[in-house]
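To: structure desk
From: M.T.
Subject: fold request, one chain
Message: Could you run this one when you get a chance? Sequence is below, nothing fancy, just the single chain.
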Amino acid sequence: MVLISGPDGVDLEASLALAGVRFVHAPGDDAPAELVAEILPPGEREIRAVAVADPPAPGDEHTGMGAWHVNAVDEVHFVRSGRGLLQFAVPAGICSVEVMAGDVMIVRRAEHRYLPLEPQEWVMRHTGPVEAGLGAQETGRAPEPWPSMS
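Reply: Done. Structure tokens follow.
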């Protein structure tokens, strides 16, 4: 189950939803088909990749996926193993979300960044043509230190 932290006095799940982000816990080895069908149109529901994200080398925490970015597609990704930390820009500030095995992350073009805390296996799906990638565009938001999640 995800662990969410963020600005005090804010309904964090509602704030994430306003930004286009939702999390569902679904134990198993993939996102439930009905959830995928709810988010992705027919013809775009296939697995695009199964990938392991490794923790970055020291000093590289704010590069690549660790830089603030927006992807050009709607995403439905399932965590098979490992732990990772995501941050999302929401109307009230920044929400931090720790994801682990069994979590499904749904992101609709929300500004975010990602830090694997340990090797983390993802099953990745997104909208767009089969050959298309995520279309990540860095936003230029200044990187703050990553929070510690315990």
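Reply (cont.): The CA atoms of residues 42 and 140 lie 34 Å apart. Let me know if you need anything else for the meeting.
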